[in-house]
Amino acid sequence: QVQLVESGGGLVQPGGSLRLSCAASGFTLDYYAIGWFRQAPGKEREGVSCISSSDGSTYYADSVKGRFTISRDNAKNTVYLQMNSLKPEDTAVYYCAANPSGCSGPGPYDYWGQGTQVTVSS
């Protein structure tokens, strides 16, 4: 069964850190670009970060540059999102997704996780 499972979310104070994990089963992440997306209540889903499969290139939304770091461990079939200096506006459900054609397509993201809640509040 093909599956992506996110973990690592939770409640953190402003300025704190969390590390999200995206673990794959039923397929190998090596051949997929992995993106992190988030959706806050009442807002549209937005792309946060992505790491390519080919050369490990990374991409970040302007809102998280310098604070978030994406990485992959192909041996563990897992991608991570290290989130530092968290702000209340980072509060959202975070999803990871896999795209065989790259971070920006042209094809769609084939597989999606169920999401993990991140809440930044004092």
Keywords for this entry:
four-stranded antiparallel β-sheet; seven-stranded mixed β-sheet; 122 residues
Task: Quote the distance from N terminus to C terminus.
Answer: 39 Å
Tally of alpha and pi helices: 0
Strand proportion, as a percent range, falls in over 45%
Helix content: under 10%
Main sheet specs = 7 strands, mixed
**Spans with pLDDT under 50 lasting ≥5 residues?**
none
Arithmetic mean of pLDDT = 95
Shape category: globular
Strand-helix topology:
Layout: E1 3-7, E2 10-12, E3 18-25, E4 33-39, E5 46-51, E6 58-60, E7 68-73, E8 78-83, E9 92-99, E10 111-112, E11 116-120
Parallel strand pairs: 2-11
Antiparallel strand pairs: 1-3, 3-8, 4-5, 4-9, 5-6, 7-8, 9-10, 9-11
Structure description:
By secondary structure, the chain is mainly β. Helix content is 0%, strand content 48%. It contains no helices and eleven strands. The strands form two sheets. Strands 2, 4, 5, 6, 9, 10 and 11 form a seven-stranded mixed sheet that branches. Strands 1-3-8-7 form a four-stranded antiparallel sheet, with no helix packed on it. It is globular. 34% of the residues are buried. The mean pLDDT is 95.
